[in-house]
């Protein structure tokens, strides 16, 4: 089971996440309290391991801007978290994650429209397009399995609930942001605890 820690804004948290076993780090280039500048992302990504997934999160961003950020920072996966179409998602030269908001079984019908490398299934609720710390009904995914896609489960995951979520959904990767923060800042002990819980669940 792979783990993505999203909303990285400083090097210390990035390195601690890698040390504790994160497979992917997310950098938000969209309207968010976790928005990062191109220069800061470049500085952090420049010292991270080559094989780590460094994911740029975008919401309905212009293609030219996404390509510029990829070129300048070393981002190696693009996460499209807005209303991007299947055609938008298919047109990049590096792997793409399409985020879909899941509120009802109907929303899962969209899954088959996208041919991208990964699908991130998240809660629709909150102030921003993502990173709101709100879970959706994971039971929908247990009832209606997503076949043949790499599913990333996101939205309101915490150390306390990630084990149960994995048992229910069996995703390819779990993604967390708010659940590893204290007072709005990334908390290294929570990151360690979250990854430990995922590892524990895998060992069962
Ligand atoms: O994290 C943000 O602030 C954000 C803002 C705008 C669009 C997407 C954003 N995050 C995308 C992610 O992949 C988050 O990790 C995901 O939504 C889960 O967040 P959380 O519920 O806080 O764990």
TrEMBL record:
Keywords: Amino-acid biosynthesis, Aromatic amino acid biosynthesis, Isomerase, Tryptophan biosynthesis. Signal peptide: none annotated. It catalyses: N-(5-phospho-beta-D-ribosyl)anthranilate = 1-(2-carboxyphenylamino)-1-deoxy-D-ribulose 5-phosphate. SUPFAM superfamilies: Ribulose-phoshate binding barrel. Gene3D superfamilies: Aldolase class I. InterPro entries: Aldolase_TIM, PRAI_dom, RibuloseP-bd_barrel, TrpF_fam. Pathway: Amino-acid biosynthesis; L-tryptophan biosynthesis; L-tryptophan from chorismate: step 3/5. Its EC number is 5.3.1.24. Residues 3-196 form the N-(5'phosphoribosyl) anthranilate isomerase (PRAI) domain. GO terms for molecular function: phosphoribosylanthranilate isomerase activity. The keyword Metal-binding does not apply. Pfam families: PRAI. Belongs to the TrpF family. This is N-(5'-phosphoribosyl)anthranilate isomerase. It comes from Cytobacillus mangrovibacter.
